[in-house]
Amino acid sequence: MKNNDLDFKVLEAYTRDIGRGIARIDQNTMDTMSITIGDIIEISGKQKAVAKCAPLYPADENKKIIRFDGLIRNNCKTEIGNQVFLRKIKTAKAETITVIPTESIPAINEDYLADALESVPLILQQNIMVPYFGGRLTFQVASVIPCIDDNMEAVIVTQKTIFHIQESKISFPEEGDISAKRQFILHQFWRLEDLDKEEFDDLISRMNRFYKELKNKKDLGKP
């Protein structure tokens, strides 16, 4: 745990917050962490998830609790009653996002995803749900542009974000640019625990080749 991480007991979201990507903590903690309403926080259980931060109702103040819905709990692999850590993170506006349906879906206008998810924070491997004709469609985030790294830890969906729905898993872009290859490696890294032995060995091999490619480009750029 980093010095600016704090741990909280997980409780169910308020009814009005379900499906809105909101996590609530007490106002005193928000002040201590320099968090304002709408700032993005990273929630760490067995995995990581991101959410918009908002204050708890007055009756829940000073109880060291955090409230968020089942989708966020699933994304960070935690349950009600467990402890999670949180911290404020840096974000950028999403330019392009590729998602993979978790099940068979009907034909859908990709522009609808930007409308349905406007202002929602996303990271790689996060599951997202959008309402659709009385039901919900679930997708997993496969890649984002700009790339997520130490300087930008999540992206925010805007009306200008372009969504691509991909029907199958991402494959390594043999002829792709550096950014596309980096996205693939990050995508595989975030699902590391789900990889079988063959996929893991393939990832290590591609990382080694990618490192050599980066090193060669760097060396060629030297005077």
Automatic annotation (TrEMBL):
SUPFAM superfamilies, per database record: ADC-like, Cdc48 domain 2-like
UniProt domain CDC48 N-terminal subdomain: residue ranges: 7-92
Keyword Transmembrane helix: no
Record flagged with keyword NADP: no
Protein name: CDC48 N-terminal subdomain domain-containing protein
GO MF, any single term: ATP binding
Keywords, sorted A to Z: ATP-binding, Nucleotide-binding
Taxonomic lineage: Archaea, Nitrososphaerota, Nitrososphaeria, Nitrosopumilales, Nitrosopumilaceae
Position of the signal peptide: none
